[in-house]
Write a structure and sequence with these properties.
Keywords: Membrane, Transmembrane, Transmembrane helix. 84% of the residues lie in helices and 0% in strands. The protein has 195 residues and is mainly α. The protein has one domain.
């Protein structure tokens, strides 16, 4: 599938970059990082303009974030009506408010596999839309500029760079989830047992 998408970047550069970053922000499996690296490679070869590559990938990512946030907002309204979920949603809302901005920012580029779920979760918990948009837009700028630049600099080694970045990003995301689960278990074990 990646080979097909890469060939489509050569033919439909801006549209493909927009579409893959948009869909990846909605948790639809897309090799968006690889596509941005390829976009940078096409910029290096002169087949795609730098402004076109960066702006189309960036706009797709921001639009995907906003769509995911709104989907989460609709789901959060529905969840808030369920009595058993209300307390859980309230707790998630307080955590999102406390750590939201930096969490949104880092999930755009450093822990990018978590990004779509932060989009949905931010909307579902009622996180401030303006704050989400600001932090998300800043994080997406880092993500897009980083990957397109690396594609430009290492145009002849795109697959190797994609493998390294994918493994590092996946490891970091797994580490964050593991730490979160550990903290949750520790907290649960400290709670008094009900008889």
């Amino acid at each position: 599938m990646s080979d097909l998408l890469l060939s489509l970047v050569a033919d439909y550069g801006a549209i493909m970059l927009f579409a893959t970053t948009f869909l990846s922000c909605l948790a639809i499996p897309m090799p968006s990082s690889l596509m941005m690296l390829a976009g940078g490679g096409f910029v290096a070869s002169g087949d795609l303009g730098l402004t076109t590559a960066v702006s189309s990938a960036y706009l797709g990512a921001v639009a995907g974030d906003q769509t995911g946030f709104q989907i989460g907002r609709k789901a959060g309204t529905w969840l808030a009506r369920a009595p058993k979920r209300k307390a859980l949603l309230s707790k998630a809302n307080s955590l999102t408010t406390r750590y939201g901005g930096p969490g949104v920012f880092l999930s755009r580029w450093l822990f990018s596999p978590l990004g779509p779920y932060v989009n949905f979760g931010g909307g579902a918990t009622g996180y401030n839309w303006a704050g989400f948009t600001l932090w998300g837009a800043l994080g997406e700028a880092v993500w897009v500029i980083l990957y397109v630049s690396l594609g430009y600099l290492f145009a002849d080694r795109i697959t190797e760079v994609a493998d390294i970045l994918g493994n590092a990003s996946g490891f970091l995301a797994a580490l964050v989830v593991t730490i979160g689960l550990g903290i949750g278990l520790r907290h649960a074990m400290k709670q008094p047992r009900k008889s």
